[in-house]
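Appendix B. One record, verbatim.
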Amino acid sequence: MGSRSLGWARSGTSHRTLRVNPGARVRLGDRELGFLRPPSFDSPATLAVYGVTARALFTSDGFGSVVPIPADDAADLREDDYLAGMTLFTHANAPWVAMTAQHKFGALVDAVASLEPAHLLSSHSPDVHGRVRTVLEHMRTIPDRPPWAPDADEIDLILWRHRITSRRRR
């Protein structure tokens, strides 16, 4: 969407926004941010933001994971649970990944790996601090893994489990 259709031209807020493309770098005081396309996303406007000094990559939808228990850090979970949840989340959030050529998807993972991030911060999972290399290698394999295609009974079971878990937390 253009800035006019979003109302920025009339509202006077365009000075508070920054529109960037993949590959852009921006200096904010003593910090430098880089922008790139994450390997998986649900909107073509999605970008990942890399904090150069902290070596932290905010991945937006990328690297999300359905985890069995609440956790702030992926290290608090069994590695295979986190990775299986990442496969599930990626196929559910970005089903197009299953139709992507491996070499094209791998190039997106390579772009992330070339930054050598120490931290992956997703909107949809616990933070990853110590397993970054393992998580990147697993992400590379997701297009070749069977896609998630639930039937109505599986969706009902997921919703039922969610209601039970939500009640326990109250």
